[in-house]
Amino acid sequence: MSVLLATLLLLIPVLLLLIRRRKPSKRVPPGSLGIPIIGQSLGLLRAMRSNNAEKWIEQRIRKYGPVSKLNLFGTPTVLIYGQAANKFIFANNGGTIDNQQTQSVKMILGDRNILELNGEDHKRVRSALMSFLKPESLKLYVGKIDGEVRRHLEMHWKGKQNVKVLPLMKTLTFNIICSLLFGLEPGKQRDQFLVSFHTMIKGMWSIPINLPFTRYNRSLRASARIQKMLKQIVDRKRVELERNEASTHQDLITCLIGIQSAGDEQVITEKEIIHNSMLVMVAGYDTSSVLITFLIRLLANEPAIFAAVLQEQEEIAKSKQSGEPLTWEDLAKMKYTWRVALETLRMFPPIFGGFRKAVTDIEYDGYIIPKGWQIFWVTAMTQMDNSIFPEPTKFDPSRFEEQLSIPPYCFIAFGGGSRICPGYELARIETLVSIHYLVTSFSWKLCADDNFSRDPMPVPTQGLPIEIWPRKNLP
């Protein structure tokens, strides 16, 4: 008995030492995973829809600290935020973090889009997309976008006294995307696309419960319809290219088909063409329409800024012949207008948060993010940080006169590092062309309050109704 007791006494210090050594490696952040599958998803979604998401995050920070664990959309998750978090995400090019969206986004947009790909696959597919989305290529399509904007204003704005901005901007960006990406002209097929597309995007941030009555299920079925339509477009365009009846420069899909194989090596698969066409479609449609909508709202509230934007755009308009479309060179002159757009993105970012996946145990800020867990970082918390942007609630485009003065990883409206948004230039062209024709053709005033919700993109009250009148007929 005494021998056993002596042995136990000798083992206790060793056991305590082992426990001390192992404890830090298992020190996951504080917090609760909540109810399985559902977790805190409903709470976050409710906060977003009531425009209290920032307060919801701040309450978690006060309760658990700057790093905490929770369960979002069926996956154990670690929440991080701030400049260090942004740098941690965008500067990580090693094998510790994978680019992965929520299960709902992955299943709806497909597992071969660049939001899901990593390493060499990501580089390969991103390079293929950039062959169309790089500035040197997109400058060829400014005239095409110009034509879509003019047709839209002629059809939906001219002769009207009141309009709802957000639905119209979604219609405009959808038409631009259909024309630019797929070569789809107005008609039955474009209309079918629109119906399915609206249903699909509603479930992208949802709890992945695949039952008939859920938003997620409806989105999955709409995604399947869109993928089938895209497959038909790919097949048709491949035949047209083989018969020399199409050019690889006419739209995104013909461009990708044209570079699908280089010698014996496949550059991009058909599945990757379809999944990434859907991704670019969502990005070009949703984020650009939200940006233009909030630009219109802010210009109504800021008459001095409206006057400065109008002056810049009228100088460009005076240099054009009647009916002459805008050019790439004209867009380069819209420096102030683009600073106004960037300030709009700072204050009202379309994207609230992003997701990654830990591929190994990761130490962050004294805690361990376990392998396989999801990382949720709130992308724009730095953009309203008073220590980075003084008077953050004040609309001040001059902040972007010298962008190098903004600390790195603090303004990330278009991502960063190797993950910077490939559609950045497309969003810039859509925005600048649209604002040019809007401010030179119309004046407006708001007909609703300034409130908005997130679903998950910002949605102004009643879709932002405004009263409009032609500039030649000012009240």
Describe this structure in words.
This protein has 475 residues and is α+β, with helices and mostly antiparallel strands. It has a single domain (2-473), classed as Orthogonal Bundle (Cytochrome p450), CATH 1.10.630. It is built from 17 helices and 14 strands. The strands form 5 sheets. It has a 5-stranded mixed sheet. A hairpin with a 2-residue loop joins β8 (362-364) and β9 (367-369). 40% of the residues are buried. Residues 1-25 have low confidence and may be disordered. It is a single-pass membrane protein.
In short:
The protein is of the alpha+beta class and 475 residues long. Helices cover 51% and strands 12% of the residues.
Features:
475 residues; alpha+beta; Cytochrome p450; five-stranded mixed β-sheet; three-stranded antiparallel β-sheet; 51% helix; disordered N terminus; transmembrane helix
Topology:
Elements: H1 2-22, H2 41-49, H3 53-64, E1 68-72, E2 75-81, H4 83-90, E3 97-98, H5 103-109, H6 119-133, H7 135-138, H8 142-156, E4 162-164, H9 165-182, H10 188-201, H11 215-242, H12 252-258, E5 261-262, E6 265-266, H13 270-301, H14 303-318, H15 328-332, H16 335-347, E7 353-358, E8 362-364, E9 367-369, E10 374-378, H17 424-441, E11 442-446, E12 452-454, E13 458-460, E14 465-470
Parallel strand pairs: 2-10
Antiparallel strand pairs: 1-2, 3-7, 4-14, 5-6, 7-10, 8-9, 11-14, 12-13
Helix pairs in contact: 2-3, 5-11, 8-9, 8-17, 9-13, 10-11, 11-12, 11-13, 13-16, 13-17, 14-17
